[in-house]
């Protein structure tokens, strides 16, 4: 059957490069349903609730602040080694439409554990709506994506092999989801060591969460404990921050002064 040859767009070329870079990462997955009633109630009561991506970015970064393994990368040059970062670097998969085509772009958020939820959410929303050239992470990665294939492979090789560059390009963890499009259990790929995906909030105040990780770095026991702690952080620190934001934005009552 005679078909039609179509040029590969820049966003699809980027996805192809990411898949090529991810093919040798030995990922293992663990899925669990988290009970997050306090979080959902605090978020529903907020005047301007942040998106779920921002919530999970900060929650995982808070866990990684106290657990160094969650901000550790596997680097291969000059010899195989672990590279531990002082702070987390989150990558968020941003779904966009460019030239009428669906695409996904990686937005970088440095040290999200030290940022307020509102700031993380603002960065994600800006990445969704702003032109590609106005988002530093997009501008940087597209500059590489425009290179010819041999040069792209060289740049990606350098970025993947050295710990410092691997963190700069791919972060210490990725947050992604299809919850906005109906949900589903997503097992994504990335060159980074940890991938967190989440589903739709269910009527029983639960959210399904999947963590994929590079098995060279840690084992399932730590990830199982991480999911337990993630539920605690979501219902604890994150819910508290949402309630604090509500108290700050609510107007103070006006007292009538009698003569």
Summarize this, please?
With 259 residues, the chain is α/β, with parallel strands linked by helices. It has helices spanning 10-22, 37-45, 52-66, 117-129, 136-145, 149-161, 163-170, 220-249; strands at residues 27-35, 72-75, 81-84, 89-98, 101-110, 173-177, 194-198, 206-214. 43% of the residues lie in helices and 22% in strands.
How would you describe this structure to a colleague?
The chain is of the alpha/beta class. It has a single domain (10-245), classed as 2-Layer Sandwich (Chloramphenicol Acetyltransferase), CATH 3.30.559. Helix content is 43%, strand content 22%. The protein has eight helices and eight strands; from the N terminus they run H-E-H-H-E-E-E-E-H-H-H-H-E-E-E-H. The strands form two sheets. Strands 1-8-7-6-4-5 form a six-stranded mixed sheet, sandwiched between helices. A hairpin with a 7-residue loop joins strand 7 (194-198) and strand 8. Helix 3 (52-66) packs across helix 4 (117-129). Residues 251-259 have low confidence and may be disordered.
């Amino acid at each position: 059957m005679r078909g039609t040859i179509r040029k590969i767009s820049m966003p699809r070329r980027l996805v192809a490069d990411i898949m090529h870079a991810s093919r040798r990462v030995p990922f293992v997955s663990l899925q669990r349903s988290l009970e997050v009633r306090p979080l959902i109630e605090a978020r529903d009561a907020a005047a301007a609730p942040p998106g779920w991506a921002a919530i999970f970015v900060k929650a995982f970064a808070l866990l990684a602040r106290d657990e160094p393994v969650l901000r550790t990368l596997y680097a291969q040059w000059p010899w195989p080694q672990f590279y531990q970062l002082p702070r987390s670097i989150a990558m968020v998969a941003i779904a966009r439409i460019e030239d009428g085509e669906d695409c996904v772009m990686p937005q970088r958020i440095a040290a999200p554990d030290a940022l307020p939820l509102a700031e993380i959410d603002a960065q994600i929303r800006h990445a969704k709506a702003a032109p590609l050239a106005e988002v530093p992470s997009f501008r940087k990665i597209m500059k590489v994506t425009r290179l010819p294939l041999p040069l792209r492979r060289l740049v990606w090789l350098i970025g993947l092999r050295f710990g410092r560059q691997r963190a700069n390009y791919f972060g210490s963890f990725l947050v992604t989801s299809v919850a906005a499009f109906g949900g589903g259990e997503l097992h994504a790929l990335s060159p980074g060591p940890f991938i967190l995906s989440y589903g739709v909030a269910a009527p029983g105040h639960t959210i399904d969460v999947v963590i994929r990780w590079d098995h060279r770095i840690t084992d399932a026991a730590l990830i199982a404990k991480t999911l337990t702690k993630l539920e605690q952080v979501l219902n604890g620190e994150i819910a508290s921050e949402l309630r604090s934001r509500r108290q700050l934005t609510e107007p103070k009552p006006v007292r009538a002064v009698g003569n």
